[in-house]
Amino acid sequence: MNLFDQISEDIKAAMKARDKVRLETLRNIKKVFLEAKTAPGANDILEDDAALKIIAKLAKQGKETAITYTQAGRQDLADAELAQVAVLESYLPKQLSEEEIEAAVREIIAQTGATSMKEMGKVMGIASKQLAGKADGRIISGIVKKLLA
User: Fold this and answer.
1) Share of the chain above pLDDT 90, in %
2) Does residue 143 register a pLDDT over 90?
3) SS3 content of the chain, % helix, strand, coil (to 5)
4) How far apart are CA 19 and CA 78, in angstroms?
5) How far apart are CA 84 and CA 105, in angstroms?
6) Model's pTM, two decimal places?
7) Taking the C-alpha atoms of 60, 66, 72 and 77 in order, what is their torsion angle to the nearest 10 degrees?
8) C-alpha to C-alpha distance for 130 and 50, rounded to whole angstroms
9) Residue 88: CA atoms inside 13 Å, Cβ hemisphere, count?
10) If phi over 0 gives left and psi between -120 and 50 gives alpha, with beta otherwise, what is residue 48?
11) Torsion of CA 57, 63, 65, 71, to 10 degrees
12) Residue 127 burial class via C-beta count within 10 angstroms: exposed 0-12, middle 13-18, buried 19 and up
């Protein structure tokens, strides 16, 4: 069962369980999935890797929104947003720790033979592909800068 079908099944389960937060979040995911499937140039099939990127993007947006709400003194809205982020993250692969990311980046640097900041783009290109969905791009970038400096 692909991720699109899994979300549809989970919507039914959330309706039966009367889990309002989960249901609202899953419906939002499905809406974005449907938009991606019907976008110009799409072939009406949403692969799991593309679906994971969408969910990761939604989770990142939710975290940023929660920070904004907290800064504005609206903890109630921030908590609601973080509850939705928790649902989104349940569909994402386990995030790597900084040590695991650093080990992967060291391996990529060794493979490419990069020695200076001039080659950061080459390392980042490979690292972004290998660690997609498993690590935040900003963390990867920070580690690459640290190791190449």
Assistant:
1) 37
2) no
3) 75, 0, 25
4) 19
5) 31
6) 0.72
7) 140
8) 14
9) 27
10) alpha
11) -160
12) buried
